[in-house]
Write a structure and sequence with these properties.
The complex is a heterodimer of chains A (109) and B (116). Chain A is mainly β and 109 residues long. Chain A is 0% helix and 53% strand. Chain A has strands at 5-7, 10-14, 19-24, 31-37, 44-50, 55-58, 61-66, 71-76, 85-92, 103-108. Chain B has strands at residues 4-7, 10-13, 19-25, 31-37, 43-49, 56-57, 65-67, 73-78, 87-96, 103-107, 111-115. The chains are: A mainly beta (109), B mainly beta (116).
């Protein structure tokens, strides 16, 4: 299956702490993408990492990719209440993008 | 530049009725997708299209049909609605990410469908 599986399913932290969520997948990929969904809204693309990259940064986001373990992690540093959302990973090697159930992050003020 | 627009935003149907959800994008994207999301769940891919005139099945295609007659539009049809199709439906289009050049998705705001 091309689907990514996020772990943990739910995460609750205090504002200012770092949040780490993980993604595992089973097939070979061209890239892996992370998306955020605020309650009731459509998903928003956050960051993409290619299969030949090991780490990528964008603002407070840091993504790592280990293709030998077929896993990725998303780190959000210095979290804010506005980061409260669900986060989804999507491994990609074809035209379709299949999402897992996501990690629900709650950041308490 | 509207991005991805879905209509209608809300709809209530009776079992057995038919309806069409419209997705329109103004970004000249080749790829378009229809997903459904049930409460507390992730997104499941219904159908997708890699270009005008093409469609392909996703994870949960049964009970749905799609058409991509024009590049900018992707229609999702329910021929005979069932209560199990009560869900929030999201359309997305796929285009090049500015930083990586890879294909990333832009989502619409969703269409909430209730089948009684």
């Amino acid at each position: 299956s091309q689907q990514g599986e996020e772990d943990p399913q739910a995460l609750s932290i205090q504002e200012g702490e770092n949040a780490t969520m993980n993604c595992s997948y089973k097939t070979s990929i061209n890239n892996l993408q992370w998306y955020r969904q605020n309650s009731g809204r459509g998903l928003v693309h956050l960051i993409l990492i290619r299969s030949n990259e090991r780490e990528k940064h964008s603002g407070r986001l840091r993504v790592t990719l280990d293709t030998s373990k077929k896993s990725s992690s998303l780190l959000i540093t210095a979290s804010r209440a506005a980061d409260t959302a669900s986060y989804f990973c999507a491994p990609r090697n074809t035209g379709k993008l299949i999402f897992g159930q996501g990690t629900t992050l709650q950041v308490k003020p | 530049n509207a991005g991805v627009t879905q209509t209608p935003k809300f709809r209530v149907l009776k079992t057995g009725q038919s309806m069409t959800l419209l997705c329109a994008q103004d970004m000249n994207h080749e790829y378009m997708y229809w997903y459904r999301q049930d409460p507390g769940m992730g997104l499941r891919l219904i159908h997708y299209s890699v270009g005008e005139g093409t469609t392909a099945k996703g994870e949960v295609p049964d009970g749905y049909n799609v058409s991509r007659l024009k590049k900018q539009n992707f229609l999702l049809g329910l021929e005979s609605a069932a209560p199990s199709q009560t869900s929030v439906y999201f359309c997305a289009s796929g285009g090049s990410d500015r930083s990586s050049g890879a294909n990333v998705l832009t989502f619409g705001a969703g269409s909430r469908l209730t089948v009684l």
